[in-house]
Every structure is written in C-alpha cells, then in structure tokens.
Design a protein that fits this description.
By secondary structure, this protein is mostly helical. It is built from eight helices and no strands. The longest helix has 45 residues. The two termini are 18 Å apart. It holds the Pfam family EI24.
C-alpha cells in the first residue's frame, strides 16, 4: 500500500497536470529558503562576528576568511534542517491544489474532497511548523550521540511529516477528529509512509519537491485506507 502510493505520487511529479502547482510550490519553497538564508546570514554578521571580535581582540586577517567558511557551514546545516518545516508551510498552502489534481486524474469516479478552510489550514501549518522545528532541534542534539544520529533524523521527520500530510489529506473527506483518529488507528502505516517522505527529503534538489510528492502520496494512501475504513 505504501509503495503503491509512493510510486503513484512519483509518477505524477512532472506530469502536465501537475505543472501549475509544481511551479507554484517550487517557486515559493525556493523563495522561502533564500529568505531564510539571507536572514540567518545577517543574524550571524550582526551578532556572532562582533561578539567574536570583542572576545578575541587582535584577530589576524585570515581569521575573517576562516570565519566566513565556518559561517557558511553553519548556514548550510541550518538551512538543511529547515527544509522540513518549510515544506510543511508550503504544503499547508498548496495541499488542496495538489489533492484536487490527484483526485481528478487518478480517481475520476470518486466524489471530490472538500478544501480545508484557508484559515484553518494556515493555523495547522504554523502549528506544525513549530513542532517540526522542535523535533529537528532534538534530532540535531542527537546527532552528537554516536549510533543513533541518522536514525534520529528519520524517526523524527518520519513521524512528523507522516502525521501532517496524512491528516491534511484525510481532512478533505473527514472531520478533523475523525481524521486524527484514523491516523492513530493506522499509526504504523502512516509512520512508514513518513519515512519514505523523510528519505525523499534527503535527496538534493529533489527535496525541494517534497510538498508535492508528500501531499500526492498521502492522498493515495488515504484512498487506500478508505477502502478499509469508509468515510
């Protein structure tokens, strides 16, 4: 069921039907990541570098170059950790567009889902943004613990991404309490599907399409679950 959903979602990523939402999703994700990069860079220049010069006066000229390299590494790591929450925000804005395309093209004989109210969708996305940021901070701390560092990344993001995208897909057809109850009932399946999304998230460049892939995959997964648990 999970592999079928992932395969169906991947096959649609570059299809003509997805082109419009693909461009909107990719564009907004890139703009958000660029804005975050510039914001983090400015924060480092404003806070970290003056503090370091005060702490260690008389730094040699090459220290600036070394500091720039270290700052670049810190920014790259920080941006990598922010990809997951950024995709959550983007998905909250475009999930209905993605779901409508999947439902119309792959399930033309089924009743279409109801769009999640825009304000409710935004509130849920912001709430999840905070949860994902917290989860990835925990995962970052666990990176210092040998043996569980990589596993921590996949477990945290697999659980959080699976929960978020499945509930969004389910709420197009079910009230929110029923969608949450369904997710809890199929928690193992949803978590494994979230691991697939987390794996997709680790592929450079492709990870910018995570909202598109994850939303489409969870629409297919919810359809499969609904065959066992009718609305």
């Amino acid at each position: 069921m999970i592999l079928d959903a992932a395969r169906a979602a991947a096959s649609r990523l570059f299809s003509p039907e997805f082109r419009s939402v693909f461009l909107k999703t990719l564009g907004l994700t890139l703009l958000t990541l660029v804005a975050l990069w510039l914001g983090l860079e400015s924060l480092l220049e404003w806070l970290a570098w003056p503090w370091l010069q005060t702490l260690l006066p008389g730094l040699p000229s090459w220290a600036g170059w070394l500091g720039g390299i270290i700052a670049g590494i810190v920014l790259a790591v920080g941006l990598a950790l922010l990809i997951a929450p950024v995709t959550a925000i983007v998905a909250g804005l475009f999930l209905d567009d993605i779901a409508e395309v999947v439902e119309r093209t792959d399930y033309p004989n089924d009743p279409p889902g109801r769009p999640v109210p825009a304000l409710h969708s935004l509130v849920l996305a912001i709430k999840f943004f905070g949860v994902v940021v917290f989860g990835n901070i925990v995962a970052l701390l666990l990176l210092l613990v040998p043996g569980i560092n990589i596993a921590a990344f996949f477990i945290v993001n697999g659980y959080l991404l699976g929960r978020e995208f499945f509930e969004f897909a389910a709420m197009r057809f079910r009230p929110e309490p029923e969608a949450k109850a369904l997710r809890r009932k199929y928690a193992g399946t949803v978590f494994l599907a979230g691991l697939v999304i987390a794996l997709f998230l680790t592929v450079p460049l492709l990870n910018l399409l995570t909202p598109l892939f994850a939303a489409a995959m969870m629409v297919h997964l919810h359809k499969a679950v609904s065959a066992r648990e009718p609305v």
